[in-house]
Task: structure prediction
Amino acid sequence: MRVLGVNAVFHDPAAALVVDGQVVAAAEEERFTRRKHGKLPVPFATWELPGQSAAWCLAEAGLAPDELDAVAYSYDPALAPPVGPDVTEDGWEGLRTLYAQRAPLFLRSALPGLDPACVRYVPHHVAHAASAHLAAPFPSSSVLVLDGRGEAASHLAGRSVDGDLEVLAAQRLPHSLGLLYEEVTDHLGFRRSSDEYKVMALAAYGKPAFLRELREAVRTTGDGGFTVAPIELHTLAKRRAKDEEWTGEHADLAASVQLRLQEVLLELAGWLHAQTGDRDLTMAGGVALNCVANSVLAEQGPFERIWVQPAAGDAGTALGAALHVAHALGDQVAPMPTAALGRGWTGEELAAWLATARVDYERPPDLAEAVAEVIAADGVVAWFQGRSEYGPRALGHRSLLANATRAANLERLNDVKGREQFRPVAPMVLAERAGDIFEGPMPSPYMLFTHRVRPAWRERIPAVVHVDGSARIQTVDRADEPLVARLLEAVERRTGVPVVVNTSLNTAGRPMVDDPRDALECFGSAPVDALALGPFLIRRAALTRS
Result:
């Protein structure tokens, strides 16, 4: 079966293709349009489809739209509240439903030749769940989904046995942990449905001074669900303007909502485990991108293993919807092989891009050794290798790399990227060396958990140590990423540490670099010392030909 998955309703539009149960391609629309998150998360944008990413997925497999057996759309308008006589009510929510109802016709326009009758609606949280339990390397698992909202709910708890999902609990709106975190994000002067990770980072600078108020407002109900009462956030901390400096009370509010989220997750996981007795938990939904909470759940919760979808946000529902429909149509669905499911280029294609750009470059006999020399000399390297990552994390394919032994590189990279200085950067480390340096859930190939940096190493790799002594690590398996593994070994020979700073290859407000033009433009406009574009190395001094 050939199934195209589509996410288009809220934000982060994306497409994914599953052929005969195998994940072939998956990409977010923002990587093509260069518009962060693809579109605004408002009802008026529901009609906007991931047309470019969908077309690329089909081209990658050599398929035409009329060759698809199904298109899986990760939202079921039949589950949303009925549209009333006034479509403007409830923030135009009825408009979202009307657009979703017409999605098959919109898709026919976006993908000429597509039969609208092949479009299947998949409930939003079922798509999230499938992106976890069908993509994970476990035949059966408990499943937990938490996000802002779907059609009429914000949460799903269930159990998957051989790919079949049994829903055990679901929390109806307006109660939502994801929407609460969004409200705090907005109150703290950040962009909702976008900057929640900034609140998570800021939390490390504060104390949970408002935990009592949050415990009163947010409670589990003993049946797998929870309630979230309205909170007057301005009574806890003054609303912060976008460009205003943050204060201690802002950090305290971030710390308080972060801690309460962790507590509630532990209670929800405890209830779910009591129902299933499973060893393994799979997770998706925007809340599952909270790597601090994931680590608390891994270390203090009842499950032995936790697997989180690397594209846990709404983009991942494109993949989940496709996997769900493929399974329903009888395919034997295989686990997700990697997060590197996006676009890639051959060496010949990259050379043609460089010729067009008219820049001098070299082809080192050993790229890993050449880049390690730059990093050891305290240079920042733009790293563009293989297929791009699906999801928000740079995992060694579209990355900025730097020396972890230099404390000043944290501020330097935040300046390069135009980010707030309270935000940390992440370490990349060989899987077999990670336990010597970090404590926490391992392996961690998708940067979805935080780890404690062992005291003996904190002064050796200061660039990647957050203010609370933690780091969001990526463990590198040499069988999966041989080039990155050789780079880490080459860096260790020069610096004495097997760790490299790894942050996403982009600047503030822009999507992660995806194609060679993006890489060359980013390199040309940012103070980066070298660009490793496939097998080629471009150095700053050789940027322009004479």
The mean pLDDT is 96. The first helix runs from residue 30 to 33. The chain has 18 helices and 22 strands.
